[in-house]
Design goal:
Blueprint: H1 3-29, E1 39-47, E2 53-64, E3 73-88, E4 91-94, E5 98-101, E6 105-109, H2 114-122, E7 129-131, E8 142-145, E9 154-155
Antiparallel strand pairs: 1-2, 1-7, 1-8, 2-3, 3-4, 3-5, 3-6, 5-9
Helix pairs in contact: 1-2
Length: about 160
């Protein structure tokens, strides 16, 4: 990892650990039972747009420690909204935007290897920046309800 990736890795893993401890402590203080709504730690990364297209591509990483478990899972999914550039009568045109997403992929599922999963994500070619905002916004990451990890790949 280069120095920037290492810094980002440290910030992500330390912040997740703190949030996980805070969420667990809050749930215990409230006397919540297993099966209640759980939150995941979500970080989104901007990916390069292929030449000849307009829009966006992103890689979403979710860190999830199920209630009552000491294992942390790392899940990823890529999504995009892209429209092709074209030519019509010598003029540049823009086609229809098309949204696509991959299925969720679990890349780590153990207390001893989740950090390696985060490192693997940070080594993804082309990661350009963090995407901020959205539901559960905490600045550069989000705390959101557990997604349906069985959602298949799709497009619209």
């Amino acid at each position: 990892m280069n120095p920037f990736q290492h810094m980002l890795y440290t910030v992500i893993t330390e912040t997740f650990s703190q949030e996980c401890d805070n969420l667990e402590g809050a749930a215990q203080a409230a006397g919540e039972q297993s099966g209640t709504s759980e939150l995941v730690f979500k970080v989104r990364f901007d990916l390069p747009i292929p030449e000849g297209f307009d829009g966006y591509r992103q890689l979403t990483m979710v860190l999830y420690c199920p209630t009552g478990s000491t294992y942390t899972q790392v899940w990823i999914r890529e999504s995009s909204t892209l429209a092709p550039f074209g030519q019509l009568n010598g003029e540049k045109t823009l086609g229809r935007y098309r949204e696509e997403w991959s299925a969720w992929t679990k890349i780590a599922d153990h207390s001893s290897c989740w950090r390696e999963g985060v490192e693997k994500v940070l080594n993804t070619p082309g990661i350009r920046s963090l995407i901020t905002g959205g539901k559960g916004d905490k600045g550069w990451y989000n705390l959101v309800e557990v997604p349906n990890f069985n959602t298949p790949a799709g497009e619209s």
